[in-house]
Specification:
2 domains, EC 2.1.1.198, 16S rRNA (Cytidine(1402)-2'-O)-methyltransferase, rRNA_ssu_MeTfrase_I, 4pyrrole_Mease_sub2, methyltransferase activity
Length: 100
């Protein structure tokens, strides 16, 4: 963690250490002025995204949105395209080919 103050000025100051060390420094010193706080991010994030639609076909996904949200197919197609990172035209073509 880093506390920085007086950035870009003659008397800029950086206090580096663990959170506990920085807290101790704050407790012992007079804290004046504006500070910037920098904290290191997590090197090993564990992100689990559970999308129930990942196991669905595009047609099933569009139909689920139509049924669940009571919307027209064009609205559902737009939502599916956004969620899946596809163009609306791709989803439209797939949906209507399966519908024929």
């Amino acid at each position: 963690m880093v506390l920085a103050r007086e950035l870009t000025k003659r008397y800029e100051e950086f206090i580096r250490g663990s959170i506990e060390e920085v807290q101790q420094w704050i407790a012992k010193n007079e804290v004046r002025g504006e500070f910037v706080v920098m904290v290191e991010g997590n090197d090993h994030p564990q992100v689990t995204i559970n999308n129930e639609w990942e196991s669905m076909t595009i047609n099933e996904h569009v139909q689920k949105i139509i049924d669940d949200e009571q919307v027209k197919p064009t609205i559902a197609i737009k939502q599916v395209a956004k969620l899946r990172g596809l163009s609306k035209q791709e989803v439209y073509d797939i949906y209507h080919q399966l519908e024929q």
